[in-house]
C-alpha cells in the first residue's frame, strides 16, 4: 500500500520532471541514477514537498545523500521530518 508521503513524493517528482504519470516510479526507484535528479532538482523536490506537506520541516543540516537514494528511503526521511502525524 502506498502511503500519503509516498504519493506526495511521486506526484512531486512527476510534476518536477514533467512526466506523464508516476506508474514507473516504485519504492526501489533510485532518485539520482534512475530519475536523474541532481542537487538542484533535489532542492526543488524538497521545496515542493514542503509545500505539499504542511507539517514537513526539513532541516538542511541533517540531510545526507545516502539517506534518500531511493524513493523508499526518501519517504522514510520525509516521515522523520514531519512535525505531526500524517495519514498512512
From TrEMBL:
<feature type="domain" description="Carrier">
    <location>
        <begin position="3"/>
        <end position="82"/>
    </location>
</feature>
<dbReference type="InterPro" id="IPR009081">
    <property type="entry name" value="PP-bd_ACP"/>
</dbReference>
<dbReference type="InterPro" id="IPR036736">
    <property type="entry name" value="ACP-like_sf"/>
</dbReference>
<keyword id="KW-0614">Plasmid</keyword>
<dbReference type="Pfam" id="PF00550">
    <property type="entry name" value="PP-binding"/>
</dbReference>
<protein>
    <submittedName>
        <fullName>Phosphopantetheine-binding protein</fullName>
    </submittedName>
</protein>
